[in-house]
Input
Amino acid sequence: MAQNIIVEKLVASGIKPTRIRVALATLLLSGKDQHVTADSVVSIARQKGIRTSVASVYNTLNQFADCGLLKRIIVDQGPVFFDTNTDNHYHVYYEDSGKLTDLPAEALQIAGIDEIPRTGKITGVDVIIRVSA
Amino acid sequence: MAQNIIVEKLVASGIKPTRIRVALATLLLSGKDQHVTADSVVSIARQKGIRTSVASVYNTLNQFADCGLLKRIIVDQGPVFFDTNTDNHYHVYYEDSGKLTDLPAEALQIAGIDEIPRTGKITGVDVIIRVSA
DNA sequence: GTCAGTGCAAACCCTTTGCAGAAAG
DNA sequence: CTTTCTGCAAAGGGTTTGCACTGAC
Output
């Protein structure tokens, strides 16, 4: 079991590895990249027999996102997506289906970011390519 | 009065120029670029003595956005921003204050968009630079 | 007189919060 | 024991919807 690796990952991020946190981290952080919503995580978790609640899933996802284990992606006024791929990359959003796909950082070359007039430091560069039929 | 220019602009966009639509279009489309929310439009309108409702403001803003007179900008799970600048351009979002500022298209050079693997056509490229203190 | 447009309130979706019970050390 | 975590239900913010009324041709 890679359970101990998951636990280590949580501890390394400053998160106490409780039952729910380990369970959700196992679902989300040990497989391949995926885009989930709070709702979809509740479904997936229950399907796997993990007894939990909406509130706890939100708590956990927000914690994971705040400490960098997940990335929040906002595409519309609907639910927030959480991306298990935390590398620098971009997104393609299919407006018709609501599906979201990754775009590796190499797919786009963006120049000029450092020259942007601003006060404060850049905490993220979100790029969403919207596509429809 | 530039009222007739506003009416022409609505008609040209396929929108029947009713009382509320002309009033809001006058507020939004005749001055300089601004970022508004449904809520802020209700306030501004009432301040100017325009009697209207939340529902009508949403209806109107959504219509304007759907026909290209306004641009929707989604920055977080809060209210949707409507941008009166419909030119191709990007945004800087100040996470601490919730303020949004424009970034002219020339500020960033983005290469590779046309080569993105996709099905369907690109309806928008949203770029948000997130900044915090 | 017809039909779109408007306003109000209720409904809606997603998310957060308050609080009591459970679990962990 | 104490403290944090969890789950439920209720509240919250933003947006949309249902429906009756208004108003323009």
